[in-house]
Each structure stands twice: as C-alpha cells, then as structure tokens.
Amino acid sequence: MTAAKKAQRAEVLRVGIYLFDKVELLDFAGPCEVFSVTSELNHFGLFQVLTVSQDGRPIQTIHGLRVVTDYSFDNHPPIDILVIPGGVGTRSEIKKEKVLQWISRVNHQAKITMSVCSGAVLLGKLGLLDGLEATTHHEVLDLLQQTAPRALVMPEKRWTDNGRVMTSGGISAGIDLSLHLVSKFYGQEVMKKTMAYMEYGDWRTT
C-alpha cells in the first residue's frame, strides 16, 4: 500500500489551538495552515483544526486582528493535538488559574501538546517541561528558565520533541514543528506534499 493510500485510511486527529487576547498571529496561523493544508491535500482527512478561547468569544491578536473562535473551555470536543501559541498575552494568561487548569486537563487527555514561542512559558509554569528539552523565542529564553528551572532550555534548537510534549522557537518555528508532526504521524511523503503546496522552506529539494 502506498503512503498516499495509507494517509487516506489514517485516523483523523483533532488539533485544538488555544487563542487569547494579544496572541502572536503567526504563532497560531502557521500551525493552522500546516494542519489545514495537509487535511485539504488528503481528501479533508488526517487533521481537523479548531480554535478555543476561554469563554468562546472573539479574541484580538497583538497586532489588532480580531478572530472568531470555535469553542470555549466548556464546550469543545476532545483534542488530540493541543497547540499553545505565544505573544505578549502569555504574560497575563500565566496568571489565570482557569487557563492553567484547562491546559493541564487537555494535556492529560491529548496525544501531543506543543507550544510556539512564549507559549512554552505556560507549559513551564505547569511543570510540563521539567527534565525535558525546551526552547522558545530568543527574547523569552531567560523568562522560560525562570519559570521552568528544571527544564533543559536549548537556545540553539528551533524545536524540541520530547514525545508527548514539544516546543518551538519564535513565531515561524511553529510551522517547522507542525510539519515535523505531520511527518511523525503520516510520513515524509505527506509532509513534503504539504511543504510543496505552501512553497515553504527548501521544499524543491526535500
């Protein structure tokens, strides 16, 4: 059976992206594009992408774009891949007990939890990075180390894969980690097809 046919028969993984005020746009739009394009190129299978905000209301990104979310903490379906983006707003989110409790609960149920940029600080606050390699935006490395003193902060890495918990560096690095996840679940052929459609990176030579 070819890789393409295997992809058609594979399970559909639900990707839940957490959105909050002053989130960095590309932090969530990048992964959203990767998983959505992969789904489209494979008969709208493999991934189903949804967005979640605390109360289900629209949020406003750091640059002012307003985004309507799909679900709230109370009514979203089960999530297989949890995406925690970053942005200035994480400084407020880390102080919200309800947000931390929700991330902890969904992380426990999900197959994968991944952060982009300063989203790693939220994972670090919960102890989810203790003893694990982690990275984040270069301007947030010190804050991550302070928040997660037991984490192995790796400034030189664009992303880290610890099995269930993954982190990526600033902004565009979330695209790289998302592509890694596509390959991890469905193989290199599916990932390369997504890269070619997006004209991303060195897709012509992969």
Automatic annotation (TrEMBL):
Source species, domain of life: Bacteria
InterPro entries the UniProt entry points to: Class_I_gatase-like (IPR029062), DJ-1/PfpI (IPR002818), INH-QAR (IPR052158)
DJ-1/PfpI domain mapped to chain residues: 14-183
SUPFAM superfamilies hit by this protein: Class I glutamine amidotransferase-like
Protein name: DJ-1/PfpI family protein
GO biological process: regulation of DNA-templated transcription
CDD domains: GATase1_PfpI_2 (cd03139)
Organism: Anoxynatronum buryatiense
